[in-house]
Amino acid sequence: MDSNLKIVVDLINQGKMTNTYKMAWIRSIVESCEKNPKKIIHFDELSRLIFKYYWNQCIFFDLNQSNNRNKKPTIIQIVENSIKEYQSLRGFKKDTFIRVEKDVDIPVTKISTVLKKDVCEKFLNLGNKIKKIYDVDLPKREIKLSNPEVLKTNSEILYSLINYRWTQALETMDGSPRISKKIKGVDRDQFPKRGNLKKFREFIDEENPQKECFLTGNKISGTPSIDHVIPWSYMYSDDLWNLVYVSPNENSSKSNQIPDKGLIDRLKIRNVKLLEILKKKGKYNKFTEELKLSIENDYVEKFWIGFKG
Q1: Which pLDDT value is given to residue 192?
Q2: Prediction pTM value
Q3: Which of 209, 285, 299, 308 is the most buried (most CB within 10 A)?
């Protein structure tokens, strides 16, 4: 194992936690490196990602994120206040942060201040030892990573490890059932049942009139199945931008796993083509509007990365 990766694994596995800040912190670093493996990362960038994680956990599950049940961690209070403000203006529905991020003013400076004071240096502390994977510049609120490429290359393994450690902490702090599913955002009891996908056929047909299987490229004999590229058990939502034709055999044998990068890239290309066709034909409704938003906000990539691990 690479020495830098070994240090990261040790920090995740062995670091003491009085709250879940450390897991949110290291996950945000890994996610930042997966998108762009640069050495210097500003706390503001990490703050936005951490806000996203806690938004999703707070708005759906209201999990207790610290050992102190009488006082919530500062970042949790910040996020919950933002949720209350959003819901007072937009209605009291629950939705993932990716879908509402343009309507939310993230208090980045407040979160960044907490990271500077309570997280960035403490994460590197293993008992009486300091294990460095980055250097901290407190005045600039930046970290300089030793090897960001290692984090990018091993992101999927690290996501799983972080989620597991986060789950362990929450089992002690919260005591809520099925924490492991909640931490990944896939608790079936909290989300709606599957809908009827027939209404999407007329739109998928526009880009794929030959009814070719999205997975194999072969022409489908008979009626094609409609498949969620990012599995429904992760999304709990039926969205045109995530739906494609596949052959019934492929659909029944397809595992309920997050797809690889190649499939995600192909879906993004398909969505651009589909939107262009629908625009030319003047087909506008809530489905095409969601498709447009998904491209503008890169939903495919964001949800894919968010559910990995």
Answers
A1: 52
A2: 0.72
A3: 299
